[in-house]
Known about the structure:
Layout: E1 14-15, H1 27-35, H2 49-59, E2 66-69, H3 72-83, E3 87-92, H4 96-104, E4 108-113, E5 136-140, H5 152-164, E6 168-172, H6 182-185, E7 197-202, H7 203-206, E8 215-218, H8 221-228, H9 238-247, H10 251-274, E9 278-279, E10 286-290, H11 296-301, E11 304-305, E12 307-308, E13 319-323, H12 327-342, E14 356-360, E15 372-376, E16 399-400, E17 405-406, E18 421-422, H13 436-450, H14 457-470, H15 475-478, E19 479-481, H16 485-494, E20 498-501, H17 504-509, H18 512-516, E21 522-523, H19 529-538, H20 542-550, E22 557-561, H21 565-576, E23 584-587, H22 595-603, E24 609-612, H23 619-631
Parallel strand pairs: 1-11, 3-4, 3-5, 5-6, 6-7, 17-18, 20-21, 20-22, 22-23, 23-24
Antiparallel strand pairs: 2-8, 7-8, 9-10, 10-13, 12-13, 14-15, 16-17, 19-24
Amino acid sequence: MVHGGDIYRNQVTVDFSVNTNPFGMPEGIKAALRRSVEAGCRYPDLRAQELTNVLADQLSVAPEELVMGNGASELIMAVIHALTPKKVLLPVPSFFGYERAAAAVGCEIAYYYLREEQAFSFTEDFLACLTEELDLLFLANPNNPTGVLMQPGFIEAVLRECHKKKICVVLDECFLPLTAWVESHTFLRKTGQFPNLVVLRAFTKTYAMAGVRLGYLACKRELAERIRRQLPEWNVSVFAQAAGIAALCEKEHLRRAVAFLQSERQELSTKLKKQGMTVYDSAANFLLFKSRKPLYEGLLEQGILIRDCSNFKGLKAGYYRVAVKTREENNLLLSALHHLAASRKPQIDYLLPPNLEVSEKPQEDKAHLFELEVSEKPQEDKAHLSELEVPKKPQEDKVLLSEFEVSEKPQEDKAQPYDLAVTEKPQIEYVLPSQIEERSFAMIEDELIKRGVVLPKCQEKVTKRVIHTSADFSYVDTMTYSKRAVETAKELIVQGADLVTDTNMALSGINKARLAHFGGKAHCFMAQEETARLAKERGSTRAAVSMELAASMKGPVIFVVGNAPTALLALHKLWREKKYRPAFIIGVPVGFVNVEAAKELILQTDIPHIVNRGRKGGSNIAAAIVNAILYDME
Length: 634
């Protein structure tokens, strides 16, 4: 099998072999496809002009520099036919389509092998491979199947070197929009700076439109026209054009998918490692991992299709790639892997020193749990170890077979015969009180880097302080900011805006001296007699009434809600009935009843806001958001 996605010749319940948006095709695209049925009797626009114009406006590139195609694969083939290169360089492992296109024109193919021991990353020797005899280089960022993300500085160095040596570069960014680094790492707007650059993208992965087939590339106008001439007439159907226009409106769908993938990729990676897999770091919406045991057929029997990567040049049997899908689907994969492992005869995979090999050796009269013969790789004058015995009865506090951990305390005088992980107790750090916060934020930053998370600069300090307050990294995915939210809050505070909280706990946590420096005050009306009286008379909550009372205050008010969803409902009602428009809402109530729904209502308004989606939050989180903003002001 060359590609993933072969659901037509297999009985598949969940397909992990293709890497599309885990949330599937947005409803807006489905509706556009249904509407376009009536246009199916017409030929499509040869130049896909409306789609091209909308896309060009969104990407801030000239329409003439865009070429639309029936998926990225068609465009790759068109590039090859337009350039007719004599020699192509392919870093491997990489997408098979590059090699297939190069073979179509009979050009020579050179390979640069990305090494596992170097985390499948480029090393300094790569630039030396860019010689004058090359005509074309394919790069993917992030790479498929490894998920490795190249840094912009490295790509620029490659482009400059290729420009000097007249090598055209196809930079495949098909997976980049599903990462948190699309704005900082894209080269779509740099084709003017690098006339030898072709940037490739597809709607396929971003909007789960694999069956619709729609891709595009960006490059200098003259090159774009050469590539366009290699494409057949009417190559982009009326359905694909309509779907593409609709897809460009689905910004929130994409934003939610990117946020979800940031956390779920790490979660899936961690759980695969716990099942004994070697998982490689990825910035994409998929993971490459290695298994000691075959998985493809066993998972397929359970209705799960994964990508067997043994036919990727540079990989071999035992390497697999899986898409990061929804939590429910990922759990199905993990459960199937567990079932597959449990259905086999239990074994311990001992990791022996590199100069030893293991092979089975039948023993006739020995009561071993299993028999292994250990032999050294050919070396002169060395004795061979044989008949490695394993005790019949498991010893307490010894090897945990399922997790490959050693829970007993390391003994000073005992040699560790095998390369097994040792569970260590957390170590106490001796930190001066004045340095605790600084050390905490440094640890948060380290953890974010390990998770592959890059926070937007304008939101960074707020989200980090929320994590600092809660020790919960899930806020990375659920903290939601309106456009210019933090900047707007700062502007209001400078204007002397007051704050109104829904609890005295939140009030006590806010740095009121810092707020007073800008002329503002913090209030909480929850304990006032009038609030209690009106709440009783109306059959309402004190939180809702306190918001209504605050609406009578003069000047702009920032509402800080960390406990009561009814406070958010009251503010939404005032806004909906056009009786009052809050200047800003920080909405992070915690709980179950109406919490999520109340937050979503605020997200649907045009009120500037910072909201934490889901059930989590609290008065301490609300105060942390306010303080993060205050501490970041001069």
